[in-house]
Amino acid sequence: MVFSKKDRAGTKIRGKSRSLAPVCFREVSMRLFAGLSAAAFGGALLVSAVSAQEVQERTIRWGHLNNTDHPVSFGVKKFAEILLAKSGGKLQVREFASSQLGNELQQQSALRGGTQEMLSASTTSLATVVPEFGLLDFPFIVSTTDQADALVQGAFGKAMIEVLPQRGLIGLGYWGLGFRNVTNSKHPIAKLEDFSGLKLRVIPNPVYLESFSAFKANPIPMAFGELYSALETRTVDGQENPYTVILSNKFYEVQKYVSATGHTFTENIILVSKIFWDKLSPAEQRMMHEAYAESRDYQKEQTRLQTEKALSELQAKGMQYNPVAPEELERMRKAAQPVVDKISASLRPETVKLFNEELDRIRKQTK
Question: Which one of 94, 175, 276, 294 counts the least CB within 10 Å of its CB?
Answer without folding.
Answer: 94
